Amino acid sequence: MFDDRKDAGARLAKALRDYAGRTDVIVLALPRGGVPVGYEVANALHVPFDILIVRKVGTPGNPELAMGALASGGALYVNRQIVGAARVANEQLAEAVTREQAEVARRESVYRGACPVLPVEGRTAIVVDDGIATGSSMRAALQALRSRRPARVIVAVPVAPIGTQQAFADIADETVVLLQPGWFDGVGALYRDFRQVDDTQVRALLCAAREQTPADHAAPSHRNAAEGPG
Q: What is the pTM of this model?
């Protein structure tokens, strides 16, 4: 188990050490829970850090069950299997999507303030969350990210179900998972401390990361982009 998200991020960074210090690498975290994990990864690797906002679209009557997800940039992923099994009408789906679109816009404003989005084009983007359950949120995030033309996309999470690497093979160049228990019972079950991350923590970590980002990491290095890990 992980002590908390900071511990998970430190351990995840060790699995990604081949990317340390490269000017063509950026870490993108999914708020809120992925931000403390991603911050630790970026800090350990000495690479820039930013956020990629994504929202789960919950099923009517069972909001914890994701029937899809959407991300900043307009990407929408709908799990048609869950929509069909839950007998969700098109009107219900549209209402849920509209509601979460408003939340994505709110979070962009609250989290970033005056901070601009860091460039991704031509970089290796390491997308971090505190774990993967259904995969809907991560898939929406990756769809949004691909439109920004990164050189490579790597999914990196502390915990996920068995088969996650295969599930993302069509949209990620690599998927790194530290723990894949056969008895998977949710992401939080693998953390001793899984308390909710609030907006204030997200803003603080994003601001701290911007203060630490070296000037020469503001844009990707084409030399490093042409090289492999390490």
A: 0.82
